[in-house]
Amino acid sequence: MSVLAQPAASVVQSVDWLAIAPPVLTAVVALVVLVADLFVPQARKPLLGWLSVAGLAVSALLLLPLLDGDRSTFCLTKQAGVCSYTADHFTLVIQFLVLGGALLAALLSVTALKDAHGGLPEGEYWFLLLSSAAGAALLPAARDLATLIVALEVASLPAFALVGMRHGDRRSSDAALKFFLSSVTATAVSLMGVSFVYASTGTLYLTQIAGRVQHVDGQLHTLAQTGVVLTLVGFAFKTAAVPFHFWVPDTYVGAPLPIAAYLSVVGKAVGFTGLILVTVIAFPSYADVWGPALAVLAALTMTVGNVGALRQQATRAYSAIRLLAWSSVGQAGYLLVPIAAAGYSKDAQKSIGSTVAYALMYAAVNLGAFAVAALVGRGRARNRVSDYRGLYATNPVTALLMAFFLLCLAGLPPGVIGLFAKVTVFSAAVDAGLGWLAVVMAVNVVVALFYYLQWTALLFRAPEGEPLRHRVPAPLTAAITLTAVIGIALSGAPQLVLRFAGGGLF
């Protein structure tokens, strides 16, 4: 019996306000900022940014009371365990990643908006960023397909506007258009898949779908299979997996740099979280379909991403941002490996823990690299890789931290956390019997070393011409310091990431 056909009394749902507090508070702060923008004079507009930063910090702190155990809300009263929102360990880890990533992007934005000199509307900017973060924080808690799609769109729609917010900038407009078209296509495909799944199973709840989709009536079996495939394809779009990656480089270059950083971490977390939920919880019986498909996607994605990064010319305008964009595509391939392995492994939870652990590592060091890129971009607007030459001579601490971030992404000491994360992902592939995928990953890791080490070496070479002195604003200092502290601390105790990410995910 479908949810819509059940008696009214059975769909009366309770609300656990503490469980939903992190995304709700983020959304409330977004509305407060939008209204306050109408009354705050132009000279005091920066206060809106600090209010947004404070709101994201408090939202992240609200995760602490939820650590004492799983909480669910919006549940069917006559069917125990069938809920639309669940704050379990997996939810809290991803919400921590999302809200932490949004907080760091907000710190970068405070400086970027100040440097824009009125070029970006501050009230709208902060409202859109917080709205997107609220949707992204809601998504990992979603346990039905309707909530999942709504959260996905709440996270995505404001991002379109943020990418194209630099009015009159052709690159920004082109980036927003590409991002919009790719996301709309992904949404359309996902919605069609969800409708087919609902038509064949009569439910939208993930746990109920898992039990019903494998026992669908023979006449509806093809419809169910098509729905599963389309749903997975739609989420593959959101992860920027090849061949759905074409929008990434131009979008990252055209967007304000803090938004590029936000998309590289939070946007990626949204796609991968949705993919994990539909594969592991809703469609485990189709593991023989999505397991091999995701393995092939992982191999293609990491290869294309690394080849694209290799082709970047150091003297090309915005080559530093393009290199980080292609690098993020390659990293997406590594993130896909454990999800694919979950389709072959008897311990899917362990495999998913590897993806979450890798995502946490990637979020910290990638945001750190973007923070340094924001600093260099203040003096070198074209932000070329060649602009980083001799950074050690003018700002040794920043150069050392940038080298650390790049070595973490490459998986080399002293970036121990990067090496640990890659070994964890590699082990997941081997344990699942995906030896060929482990070999492809190993080859790609070696290929990636070339452009990461080349950029790192450039930081310590003698500068050409007059060296550029970089004054580091307080928000940028805070962002760089936070990411550095996290990366260095985890490199000293890398096992903490896996323990935090993997314990009792679902």
Automatic annotation (TrEMBL):
Q: Which Pfam families match?
A: Proton_antipo_M
E.C. no:
7.1.1.-
Q: What class of enzyme is it?
A: translocase
Q: Which reaction does it catalyse?
A: a quinone + NADH + 5 H(+)(in) = a quinol + NAD(+) + 4 H(+)(out)
Question: Where is the NADH:quinone oxidoreductase/Mrp antiporter transmembrane domain positioned along the sequence?
Answer: 142-445
Q: Where in the cell is it found?
A: Cell membrane; Endomembrane system; Membrane
Statement: the UniProt record of this protein carries the keyword tRNA-binding: no
Annotated TM spans? 20-40, 47-67, 92-113, 125-142, 148-165, 177-198, 228-248, 260-283, 289-311, 323-344, 356-376, 397-421, 433-453, 474-497
Work out whether the entry's keyword set contains Thylakoid. no
| Coiled-coil stretches | none
Membrane association type: Multi-pass membrane protein
Provide this UniProt record's keywords sorted from A to Z: Cell membrane, Membrane, NAD, Quinone, Translocase, Transmembrane, Transmembrane helix, Transport
Q: Which InterPro entries match?
A: NADH-Q_OxRdtase_suN/2, ND/Mrp_TM
Subunit structure, interactors included? NDH-1 is composed of 14 different subunits. Subunits NuoA, H, J, K, L, M, N constitute the membrane sector of the complex.
Role according to the record = NDH-1 shuttles electrons from NADH, via FMN and iron-sulfur (Fe-S) centers, to quinones in the respiratory chain. The immediate electron acceptor for the enzyme in this species is believed to be a menaquinone. Couples the redox reaction to proton translocation (for every two electrons transferred, four hydrogen ions are translocated across the cytoplasmic membrane), and thus conserves the redox energy in a proton gradient.
Instruction: Return the similarity comment.
Output: Belongs to the complex I subunit 2 family.
Please state what the protein is called: NADH-quinone oxidoreductase subunit N
Q: Which organism is it from?
A: Streptomyces carpinensis
Query: Lineage of the native species?
Result: Bacteria, Bacillati, Actinomycetota, Actinomycetes, Kitasatosporales
